[in-house]
Amino acid sequence: MRGKLIIFSAPSGTGKSTIISWLMKEHRELNLAFSISCTSRAPRGTEKNGVEYFFLTPEEFRQRIDNDEFLEYEEVYENRFYGTLKSQVERQLEAGQNVVFDVDVKGGVNIKNFYGDKALSIFIQPPSIRELRRRLENRGTDAPDVIDQRIARAEFELTFADKFDRVVINDILEYAEADALEIIQTFLND
Fold it and tell me: What is the spatial distance between Cα 45 and Cα 22, in angstroms, rounded to a whole number?
């Protein structure tokens, strides 16, 4: 049986990746398979090519755009691209996997529009911009000017929440995880 698609989008630092990781580790019965996106940014920390992302140069990314290989892509910042390869998604769906996307808001909307009812789109929302800034600062992975860029982008991304099937507010992580699980179980059982 062909799989379904579950799209997660959120501003950076909202906890979306933490929620996805929990779902995939603790709820194997959902048969979730992570969609590995491409990016032109450098790896962070212990990230490995082909695990968290496929890391491409901006030139390689542009060539794949020209070849129409992406389901969705965006140049988030100058020469910083993110995108999802069509071929990988189709292979996973045909294998019966429920494909999970961790994408920016425009990508999430594009994937939802492409797949329609076969996809569930979930927007993870922070309780406030102030709390989001605190989380980004506590992560310790970005310089202050990058955090300022991420906050400005988050304010823009929050305007997309109503374009998603469901919104989960991540104020208390355990509650947000439980909400996401219930939403996904209902979708997969329909």
Answer: 20
Give the DSSP letter of residue 168.
E
Alpha-carbon span 74 to 104, nearest angstrom? 8
**Are residues 62 and 80 in contact, defined by beta-carbon separation less than 8 angstroms?**
no
Q: What is the pLDDT of residues 130-162, one digit of tens each?
A: 999 998 899 888 899 999 999 999 999 999 999
* Alpha carbons 107 and 71: distance in angstroms, whole number: 9
How far apart are the C-alpha atoms of 10 and 105, rounded to whole Å?
A: 7
Q: Which two tokens stand for residue 173?
A: 């992580």
Q: Looking at the whole model, is its pTM more than 0.85? A: no
CA angle 92, 24, 110 (to 5 degrees): 50
